[in-house]
Amino acid sequence: MKDKAISIHSSRGGTGKTMIATNLAAIYASKGLNVALLDLDFRAPSLADVFSRGIRDPVRHWLNDFSDGKCKAEQVLIDVSEAYHLKGKLLLGLANPAMGAIRNMMEKSRAWEVTAVKRLFSLRSTLFSDMKMDCCIFDTSPGIQYTSINAVITSDISVIVTTLDSLDLKGVENMLVELYDALSKTTVVLINKVFPETRVWSSERQKDLISRLEKTLKHPVIGAIPCYCEVLQAKRTSILAVDMPYHPFLRNLEEVVERLEHVVETN
Amino acid sequence: MKVELLLTKLVDELNLVNQKLGSLIELNEKILKTQEEFLRVGSDKTHFGTELKLEPDAMSLLSLPMSLRKTVMVLYKLEKATAEDLARETKRLRAVESASANQLVRMGYLTKRREGREVYFYLESPMETRK
Question: Would you tell me how many other CB atoms lie within 10 Å of the CB of residue A21?
Fold first, then answer.
């Protein structure tokens, strides 16, 4: 995974997008890769809370400020690799969770969004060219919104996280046609929170489920991760790849990483 | 006597015509002034262009035909580009990119400027134009 930007998206909220994004970033960083994880969910920011354990100083510059042209890329990024004992670098770009900041982002004009997508491209370029990052992960807002489309446009590959809920799947089906195919983006689907766990108990069952979904969605499905109680019950400030590296959730995610790399290589 | 009366009547009528002509000239001056003002605002390219310019945001992008969408997406990344730069990114022919970019200019999504011997296409948001 060299110089690749991955957007983690979903059609609706609650699919586990942030959990996937944070742990993917931690897995890459624990393997020695330099990773940037950006919170592009300006309407419901969460990474500031998720990584609160590792953020030592008060955050002075947010991605909101960067998008507004009020600060430089270097000022926004926070290095948390030491706090989580990671082999590679993990840099965070956080969205401001303050109510005023969220309201401000919701009032932005279409003209502002044009500048925002260009700023995101320049941030991507700084991360890869100047800061020598290997991979950049965008945690986006669900559905079709400016910030999520901007993230999809800027990324090389998009991972749509969905549950098996019929509304989620219908939303994914629509997004694949209306958004991803329209933008000619490499897109893969990741099924999360599969319940009951027995549906993907054996590798045969998992393969069968994946192949049926690939036929319906007409896009690669890179994994089906069961719904684990420990994951649902884990503290939101817990990075599972760091705190519970041997949990089956992480084993499943490691397989996802391998399949993702295969997709990147073949595209 | 009769002639004198007729002449006086004629002078009165002419005076009335003169008055009416005076008010018509006054009205015409007002119309011309308004027209001049309108044309002055219209010829102010920055102002007029800003009002008419379409915003090439991500949502509008989805409503464009695929061929044009590719060109806009490259310009998000490059900010400004010649038809050749665009062709290098999209891996399409330079002539194809030139046609796409010029069509986007006509549609109001892009602007183009000559810099020396090169013609550059820009994707400017009206917000930036207003600066």
Answer: 28
pTM for this prediction:
0.81
Amino acid in the structure at residue B7: L
Question: Among A107, A105, A103, A18, which residue's Cα sits nearest to residue A67?
Answer: A105
> pLDDT > 90: what percent of chain A?
73
Q: Take residue A15 and report the two structure tokens written for it.
A: 């699919």
In this predicted structure, the answer to whether residue B46 has a pLDDT above a threshold of 50 is no
- Token pair 């400027």 is found at B113
Question: What does A117-142 look like in DSSP terms, one character per residue?
Answer: HHHHHHHHHIIIIIS--SEEEEEE-S
Question: Is A117 part of the contact surface with chain B (CB cutoff 8 Å)?
Answer: yes
Structural domains counted in chain A: 1
Closest chain A residue to the Cα of B80, Cα to Cα: A118
Asked if the model's pLDDT at residue B63 lies above 90, the reply is no
For the structural domain made of B54-130, what CATH number should be given? 1.10.10.10
CATH code of the domain covering residue A221? 3.40.50.300
Residue A83: the pLDDT is 93
Which residue segment(s) compose the domain that A38 sits in?
Answer: 4-266
**According to the model, what pLDDT value does residue B50 have?**
42
Query: Could you say which residues from 4 to 43 on chain B have a Cβ atom under 8 Å away from some Cβ of chain A?
Result: none
